[in-house]
Specification:
Its EC number is 2.4.2.8. One of its GO terms (cellular component) is cytosol. It is an enzyme of class 2 (transferase). By secondary structure, the chain is an alpha/beta fold. It has 4 helices and 9 strands, in the order βαβαβββαββββα. The chain has one domain: Rossmann fold, CATH 3.40.50.2020. The strands form 2 sheets. A 6-stranded mixed β-sheet has the order 4-3-2-5-6-7. The two termini are 18 Å apart.
Length: 180
């Protein structure tokens, strides 16, 4: 039923799993002995973070933040609202933000600056998708699985108006769906 609104599959489930395995191996080496906090940005990061952590073979802690900047539309409003912060003190800790997509970059730039002010030992970003054509601020992910074109994508955690997150792949949403 949901697939009728997908123009094309951009990244398949198998490609996502393979990328998570590769990134997990890299993070295992990069964070060995550091006990980082992987901070998932709700809600979109959940499927990617769940897949990614299965492939990290060193001690990590997990936490989540709920941050809003879209407010039901198709583009970021630029106004960041922290609805749920992490539960731990980040001073002296290694932080890895896990995201579904970096588009404008405004949310992650704000979060990185906030955690640096809180004296985190390091602050890095891992993202499933990077959409550099959408960037409004100067920020780059430290770890990127896929760079995508400037198209409106859904699936694997990404949504349009809270729908399509449960697709097992990343697809391009047909324009007529979000321009009604």
């Amino acid at each position: 039923m949901l697939e009728q609104n997908i123009k094309k599959v951009l990244v398949s489930h198998d490609e996502i799993v393979t990328a998570a395995q590769k990134l997990g191996a890299q993070l295992t080496g990069d964070y060995a002995g550091k006990n980082p906090i992987f901070v998932g940005i709700l809600k979109g990061s959940v499927p990617f973070m769940a897949e990614l952590i299965k492939h990290v073979d060193t001690h990590i802690e997990m936490d989540f933040m709920l941050v809003s900047s879209y407010h039901g539309g198709t583009s970021s409003s630029g106004v960041i609202h922290i609805i749920k912060d992490i539960d731990q003190d980040v001073a002296g800790r290694h932080i890895l933000f896990v995201e579904d997509i970096i588009d404008t970059g405004k949310t992650l730039k704000s979060l990185c600056e906030l955690f640096k002010e809180k004296k985190a030992a390091s602050v890095k970003i891992a993202t499933l998708l990077d959409k550099p054509e959408g960037r409004k601020v100067d920020i780059e992910a430290d770890y990127t699985c896929f760079t995508i074109p400037n198209e409106f994508v859904v699936g694997y955690g990404l949504d349009f108006d809270e729908n399509y997150r449960n697709l097992p792949y990343v697809g391009v949403l047909k324009e007529e769906v979000y321009t009604k």
